[in-house]
Design brief:
Structural class: little secondary structure
Number of helices: 1
Distance between the termini: 30 Å
Number of strands: 0
Strand content: under 5%
InterPro entries: PHM/PNGase_F_dom_sf
Low-confidence stretches: none
Helix content: under 10%
Shape: extended
GO molecular function, one term: catalytic activity
Length: 125
């Protein structure tokens, strides 16, 4: 989430890798909009890049589950659901990507994925 009420005009510092638009860029968009947002000339020099394929990749899937509200009356509307997923791995591996596909996307605001030390104290999975 971006930091709210923060500007990137130098009055409150600057942000590394900021994608804030410069005043000239904002004006160019405004002029284009005021002109009726005309379509430009399509580019013909672009090509879809080759996608690298991992020949020894393994796909892991979590089981489907239906969360049940716990806590106060507000829990039905604002919940954190924490659960462990046993990968079944017996050696270290590099995670090159992941996809979270909720059954009801409208109910999901954030997904936090973290690694957990299986030897750390805590409730059993």
């Amino acid at each position: 989430m971006p930091p709210w009420l923060v500007t990137d005009d130098g009055s409150c510092g600057t942000f590394e890798g900021s994608r804030a638009l410069a005043p000239a860029e904002i004006e160019a968009i405004r002029a284009w909009s005021d002109a009726g947002a005309p379509e430009g000339e399509p580019r013909t020099d672009l090509a879809v890049p080759e996608v690298e394929v991992l020949t020894d990749a393994v796909t892991y899937e979590t089981p489907s589950f239906v969360p049940e509200a716990e806590g106060t009356d507000l829990a039905a509307f604002d919940e954190y659901r924490c659960f462990r997923v046993d990968t079944g791995l017996t050696a270290d591996r590099f995670l090159t990507g992941y996809s979270v596909e909720p059954g009801v996307p409208e109910m999901i605001h954030h997904v936090l994925v973290i690694t957990v030390d299986p030897e750390a104290p805590g409730p059993a999975a």
